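Table S2 (text version). Query chain:
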Amino acid sequence: MYRGSCLCKAVQFEIHGPIRDIIYCHCSQCRKAQGSAFATNGNVAANQFKIVSGADQLTGYANSETQTKYFCRHCGSPIVSKNTQHPDQVRVRLGTIDSDITERPEAHIFVDSRANWDSIHDDIPQYEEYEPNRD
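Corresponding structure-token output:
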């Protein structure tokens, strides 16, 4: 099990299962949402993700017709995003997880739109677009 929270601890959650498809996303939307060079996200089964406190402190931003990003209304920490095309999963911002994470990132995506001041210094595969795990 993983435990996580926002910066101010108003929102706390648990993950009761594995984190899949961990990626570093360099798209402009993730850079804006994180305020950093990229976002580190992973998929979790929706029935294995539980807000244990502060659900009423989450607010959402619909950044497309199908996707809503949820964050703490107090400190602004991004917690998850949900996509109506994939209702069985949530996409968790890994920086909000307090527990040690055993799974590892699998790819960098949208590398062509990465910040011009950012450099990638690892040997993880890089893609111009989203390349989901092809299991």
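Notes on Table S2: The longest strand covers residues 39-45. The chain has a mean pLDDT of 93.
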